[in-house]
């Protein structure tokens, strides 16, 4: 629950203040993330726009 009692607030899995930037990570991981981004793949810890599109669709599409 959020610090303010009585209100619910979505809390990200990893708080923004604790997320590592690409420069802070291990060199191997940095090169992999660059490669994955260039190939249009999902990168852990970054938004996945394809997933957002999929989950935004109605559960029961009209027939």
Question: What characteristics describe this protein?
Answer:
63 residues, mainly alpha, 2 helices
Give a brief rundown of this model:
With 63 residues, the protein is mainly α. It has helices spanning 27-38, 49-56.
Rounded Rg: 17 Å
Strand content: under 5%
Query: Averaging pLDDT over every residue, what do you get?
Result: 75
Following the backbone from N to C, one meets helices and strands in this order, namely HH
| Shape estimate | flat
**What is the number of E strands?**
0
Would you tell me the structural class of the helices and strands? mainly alpha
For the largest beta-sheet, the strand count, sense and barrel status come to: none
Helix content: 25-40%
Determine the N-to-C terminus distance: 40 Å
Number of helices: 2
As residue ranges, the low-confidence spans are none
Describe this entry's structure for a reader.
By secondary structure, the chain is mostly helical. 32% of the residues lie in helices and 0% in strands. It has helices spanning 27-38, 49-56. It is flat and about 40 Å long. The model has no long low-confidence stretch (mean pLDDT 75).
């Amino acid at each position: 629950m959020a610090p303010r009692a009585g209100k619910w607030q979505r809390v990200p899995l990893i708080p923004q203040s604790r997320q590592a930037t690409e420069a802070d990570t291990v060199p191997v991981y940095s090169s992999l993330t660059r490669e994955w981004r260039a190939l249009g793949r999902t990168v852990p810890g970054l938004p996945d726009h394809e997933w957002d599109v999929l989950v935004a669709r109605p559960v029961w599409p009209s027939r």
